[in-house]
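Recap slide: WDR64 protein, sequence and predicted structure.
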Amino acid sequence: ALELLDFKNALEQFQKLVKKMITQKKKERSGLHTKDDDEIDYDKFCTTTRALFGPAVKDHNIQAFFRKIIYNLDRSPDWLEIFGCFIEESDGLSSQLKENMVFLVSEKQQITDSVVKRKDVIKGIVKVPHLDFTITASQKGVITIFDNQCRVYGIYVEMDTGWINGCDFLPQLKYVVAVTASTIMVWDYKSDNKNNCFVIKPMKNCLLCVCTVTMSDHLAKDSILMGDDKGYVYLLTMTSDNFILRQYKTEKGSQFHVLDSETFKMVKRKLHDDWVGKVRYISALKRFGSCSSDSISSFVLDDIKRLEDNLPVKEFSVPKGVNAFTYCGKAKVIVTGG
């Protein structure tokens, strides 16, 4: 309770500091301000902020907030944008206080034995709750599985298939799936042979994103959604029969087992006039969503059956398109970011 009270007091002082500085900067621009000992420059702002919130505040956060104030004097920036989220008093707050406090930087854990090499970036990260592990996929082809203690216990590296653009987990088949510009990679991480990876090709357009469709309880079947650079959204269904020995061949000099994309059940429909930035199946709504930088068909939310027919889809237009979206089941809202 004392920590909560201290934080509220600190927040009130911080808001007064921001208000005073905005007033000062507006007077400076109008030529009415005269410099004195009480003037708030960056050094004073930084020192005061640290005194209020402690060493958990990082220099780059303070600097970003200060710049935002300077360049947006007509609209006071919200401290939430930089410093996190504060939860009001409610039942059970005492037991959740540690999780609800704003500055938890010291509790973050860094994986020092990184499996991603220099000049590589993470393109996908997926939490698999029922197996209690996390999958990451890097742009240059490193697919890694971490357990709940952040220990690496499965890794696959392949540099010949192009950049990876996204990944997900197939819950029924127990495989990891990833997409590159021209292929779909399916990795059997349980195999003793760490190179037991299948490649589905050819794909006509460049694949940009992928997600699992969690609507089937069939023990040997999974479906995925994918988006490409031409505005198409694909629905691909995979079964265990697709991965039996007679189905694939191994190309010379390759560690992949190659599968013909024509042997899979795949439907597609053009929903956007630009790149598909993200696809997701929202189980709670029994709908899929896809977004694009297209200003006309920016965001589509509809039944997955619409990919198999030509009926109109529910779509929303946003100037300059939509780059990301998410669904909150508790609030029953979809939030988009352009």
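Residues 120-266 form a domain with the Methylamine Dehydrogenase; Chain H fold (CATH 2.130.10.10).
Residues 2-30 form the longest helix (29 residues).
(End of recap.)
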